[in-house]
Specification:
The protein has 279 residues and is mainly beta. It contains two helices and 15 strands. It folds into two domains: 139 residues; 83 residues, Immunoglobulin-like. This is DUF4249 domain containing protein.
C-alpha cells in the first residue's frame, strides 16, 4: 500500500530520541544477546491452496515446520507427517513428503466455493482445519505514475485496478515481490465501503525503478482469513517499544489436545498473477 509520511512534533521528538539511541549504541562495541525464555516448539503449518487463473491448479504444496529459538538461524523442518485434504464430495487428496517439511499433491482438483478439510497427523497429534475456496476478481488494468516525495526524488507508484462484485462481500490479499525486496510485501483489502465499485491497489518503493520487474499475486480470501492477516500485519508493523504480541491463532485445531494448538492458517484462494515491468 502507498505509505505517506507525516511530520509533526511527536515525529521530531521520536527522531531525536532515535538519534541519541544510535549514538549511545555506537559507543559500545560489545554484542549483547538477551537470555530469552524458550517456549514450546509449536508446529507451524503453512497450508495455502492457491489456484492461479489459467492453470488447472493440480499441483499444491503444504509446508510443516517447528518454532525455533529467537536467535536460531534455521527453521526446523518437520518430516514424517501424514497430510491429506478432503472435499465435500468425499474426494481425498494426499500430500506426500518430497523433501524435509515439504508435502506435495499433484492431482488436486480446485472447485470454487467448495469446502475442503485439512488433516495432519504428526507427533502423535491430529490437526484439522476447514475452509472454502474463494474466488478472485481479475485485474483489469495496471499503470504507473510519479508521486512527489519531499524526502527525496519522486517515487514511482504502480497501480492495478479491478471491478468488485456488488452482490457479495469480498476480501482480498495481495503480495508484491521484486529482486530488491528481501521479503514479500502484503496488503489486505475489504470492499466494505466500496462494494460494487472499481478498486485500485497501489505499491511504491524507493528502489522501484524503470526496468525492474514487480511480481504481483492478487488473491480472493475468506473474511476469517482477512481478519487473521490483519492481525499478522498489525503485529509485523507494531511499535517496537510496545508490548510483545502473543501467538495469533489460526483456524487449525488440535483434536488430540486442544491446548497444544498449531500455528498457521489453512486457506484456499483463487489468484491472479502478473509480472509487471516498470517503464
Amino acid at each position: 500500500m502507498l505509505r505517506l509520511k507525516k511530520y509533526n512534533f511527536k515525529n521530531r521528538a521520536f527522531t531525536l530520541f532515535s538519534l541519541l539511541s544510535v549514538l549511545l549504541f555506537l559507543s559500545c562495541d560489545k554484542l549483547v544477546e538477551l537470555d530469552l525464555e524458550t517456549g514450546d516448539p509449536k508446529i507451524v503449518i503453512d497450508a495455502e491452496i492457491i489456484w492461479e487463473k489459467g492453470t488447472d491448479g493440480s499441483k499444491q504444496t503444504i509446508k510443516i515446520s517447528r518454532m525455533a529459538a529467537y536467535y536460531s538461524p534455521d527453521t526446523p523442518k518437520v518430516s514424517g507427517a501424514q497430510v491429506r485434504v478432503e472435499n465435500n464430495d468425499g474426494t481425498v487428496f494426499r500430500f506426500n513428503e518430497s523433501e524435509p517439511g515439504l508435502y506435495v499433491c499433484n492431482n488436486f482438483v480446485p472447485v470454487l466455493n467448495m469446502e475442503y478439510k485439512l488433516f495432519v497427523d504428526v507427533d502423535g497429534q491430529s490437526l484439522t482445519a476447514t475452509e472454502k475456496l474463494t474466488s478472485v476478481t481479475p485485474i483489469e488494468k495496471i499503470d504507473q505514475e510519479f508521486m512527489a516525495d519531499i524526502t527525496g526524488p519522486d517515487l514511482l507508484v504502480v497501480t492495478f485496478y479491478y471491478k468488485d462484485p456488488a452482490d457479495q462481500a469480498n476480501y482480498y490479499l495481495t503480495d508484491y515481490k521484486a529482486d530488491f525486496m528481501p521479503y514479500p510485501e502484503y496488503t489486505v483489502t475489504s470492499d466494505e465501503f466500496v462494494n460494487g465499485n472499481e478498486i485500485n491497489e497501489k505499491f511504491t518503493d524507493t528502489d522501484l525503478k524503470p526496468g525492474k520487474i514487480l511480481d504481483i499475486t492478487h488473491r480472493g480470501i475468506s473474511k476469517n482469513f482477512y481478519n487473521y492477516m490483519n492481525l499478522i500485519l498489525e503485529a509485523a508493523n507494531s511499535n517496537p517499544f510496545g508490548a510483545v504480541t502473543g501467538n495469533i491463532r489460526g483456524n487449525i485445531i488440535n483434536t488430540t489436545d486442544t491446548n497444544n494448538f498449531a500455528l498457521g492458517y489453512f486457506r484456499l484462494c483463487e489468484s491472479n498473477h502478473i509480472l509487471y515491468t516498470v517503464k
